[in-house]
Amino acid sequence: MIVYLICYLASFLLARGGHFYLSGLCLMGAAVFLYVQDFKRTGNCIHLRGVFALAWVGGQGVSCLKLSRLAQDWTFLTWLCFLAAFVSFYFVFEIFEKRGRDNYNSYASRWKGQKRWHDFRACEEPVFICALAVTAVSLFCFVLEAVVLGYVPFFLRGVPHAYSYFHITGVHYFTVSCVLVPALSVIFFHSNGGRDRLRTGILIGADVIAVLIPILCVSRFQLILAAALAVITYLMMDIHIDPLQMIISAAVLFIGLLAAYIILAIARSHDVEYLNGIFEMKNSRTPIFITQPYMYIANNYDNFDCLVRAMASGYSHSFGLKMLFPLWALTGLKFLVPSLTAFPLFTTKEELTTVTLFYDAYYDFGILGVVLLGCLLGFLAWYLTDMVKHIRNPIGYLLYAQIAVYFGLSFFTTWFSNPATWFYLALTGAAAVYVEWRQ
């Protein structure tokens, strides 16, 4: 933490002096250092505190580079909020870790000489049923939306935001629930070991459907989420992985996702000219494969700064209404009382609407909201990191994977005030209850 604080102060001073590249490098270096420290100490490459540090602090470092004309130096309050978010998270995790039941240094040795999935063979059938049920419901809802709306986004041309309109209220949550299927399949294959060929074949078919639905919806994010959940679940279930095998698998996965990402970008009519016009990079010759991921990380911190400036100029806080949006959405109250969700979105540009994990917390209560959310997330990270060491229900690995993704993409959006996030968590909870009952 001392290294982080020193780097943060240096980054702030360098940014104030206009040395943006050095400012960004300071924070990116601090992020890598924090992640490596947690990895070396625990042996867990998906350690939640390390993942959050790498994503949140590293993402802030990327944003500090200021490669786009849309970016400007942040206000002092914005810098203070980013600092408060991480420090509150880190110290709450640290406090509970010291009071925890086990020493985290035993993580890597706890399972030495055995594979975790040996404990889960009794879960084979209920996990199979869960995966099949989610696939069937997701496929049915996708077909229903396609028939009612009269189109499939993948087959439209010249409509950049076709997926944004491919929604039937209350139904689309079930359509995109297919992202959980590959991770459920990982749990099944670890429990089954390939003994039941019929079920294995059926589940492979379910995985194909689960991947095709995001592609046909031209949802790059849903495709990446499905892959990320499966990979993290696999890594958490089996720490005995050949490093060469892991590198080869990661390379194949990366190439496959990159190809799918490019195809979906084309399908969404997001060509280079369209994207460059939106991103407004200072260097117009920056390759699009650098520009696009950069903006998906960097601009979100700038959007947070826009919010801070707007609140300072006279806009009032929402006092909890923003973060309660899942309640208004999932209960339908947003249609009955539109004022519950009638809050302007403050961004650098109309098309760039992604924001950070702490955007709504600041919208609600200012820096106090940022600190409170950071504390809650720190406790959640500690609880799950402790839970996973002596887990009995394999669906717990899927829960851990979801939170790891949300932390790993903490720079991207307000996960915990997103109705889809809570729908996924509720579905995961239902699966856990079913598996526990069947066990």
Computed structural class: mainly alpha
Mean pLDDT: 84
C-alpha geometry: globular
- Which residues form runs of ≥5 with pLDDT under 50? 101-118
Computed Rg: 22 Å
In sequence order, what are the helices and strands, one letter per element? HHHHHHHHHHHHHHHHHHH
Alpha plus pi helix count: 19
Overall description:
The protein has 439 residues and is an all-alpha fold. 67% of the residues lie in helices and 0% in strands. Helix 3 (48-63) crosses helix 13 (288-312). Mean pLDDT is 84; it is low at 101-118.
Summarize this structure briefly:
This protein has 439 residues and is mainly α. The chain has helices spanning 2-16, 20-42, 48-63, 76-99, 107-110, 124-149, 172-175, 181-192, 197-216, 220-237, 243-267, 272-279, 288-312, 325-331, 333-336, 359-365, 367-387, 395-408, 419-438. α6 runs antiparallel to α8, α9 packs antiparallel against α10 and α12 runs parallel beside α13.
Features:
single chain; 439 residues; mainly alpha; 19 helices
Helices and strands in order, then pairings?
Layout: H1 2-16, H2 20-42, H3 48-63, H4 76-99, H5 107-110, H6 124-149, H7 172-175, H8 181-192, H9 197-216, H10 220-237, H11 243-267, H12 272-279, H13 288-312, H14 325-331, H15 333-336, H16 359-365, H17 367-387, H18 395-408, H19 419-438
Helix pairs in contact: 1-2, 2-3, 3-4, 3-13, 3-18, 4-17, 6-8, 6-9, 8-9, 8-10, 9-10, 10-11, 10-18, 12-13, 16-17, 18-19
